[in-house]
Amino acid sequence: MAMPRKGSRLITVDGTAFRWRVSHRPAFGDGTSAAPLTFVVEHDETPGRVLLVSLPCARPDNWQGARTIAVRPPLVAACVRRALEQGWTPARPGPRFTLAVTEDDLTELLGSSPAYLVPFLWGMMPEGGTIRDLPRARQIWSRENTGTDRTL
Q1: Alpha-carbon span 127 to 135, nearest angstrom
Q2: Positive or negative CA dihedral for 70, 71, 77, 82?
Q3: Which tens digit of pLDDT belongs to each residue from 37-65?
Q4: What angle separates helix 103-110 from helix 73-85, to the nearest 10 degrees?
Q5: CA 99, 76, 31 angle in degrees (round to 5)?
């Protein structure tokens, strides 16, 4: 089954065009653990066997506030290369090919330590960051502060 073109992004890896998209449906299990962040990749011209990449971090919409990562084209390209090395044949029909990326693999694929993000109220903040790292949050008011001179 081919991936819908709407919402997918085009990427060229070593001269071959692929389409990819982050899975937009979270897989909620028993509610005690965050669903892993996954994305799918397929050959652009002749979609066949789909690549499913599972990352060692949670989805950005997780409820537990577990760390996540931004899926960017360099990571997608590195995962495609790794899957091709492991025997993924994207232009031939067949069952999906799953690539489970570990913490060590993620560092190797990116060439450096990943920059994790943590969901926090209005958006994402870098892991170990502070309230100043949030671009949209300027000031948080407590319930005790009832003054009318609130300037943002």
Answers
A1: 15
A2: positive
A3: 899 999 998 888 999 999 998 887 777 77
A4: 110
A5: 60
Note the pLDDT tens digit of each residue in 2-47.
677 788 899 999 999 999 999 776 555 555 556 788 999 999 988 8
Q: What average pLDDT does the chain have?
A: 79
Question: Per the structure block, which two tokens stand in for 34?
Answer: 């965050």
DSSP helix, strand, coil percent of the chain (3-state; round to 5) = 15, 25, 55
- Residue 91 DSSP one-character state: T
Q: Which residues of 96-130 are buried (b: 16+ CB within 10 A; e: fewer)?
A: ebebebeeebbeebeeeebebbbbeeeebbeeeee
Structure tokens given for 26 = 């979270």
Helix (H, G, I), strand (E, B) or coil at 144: coil
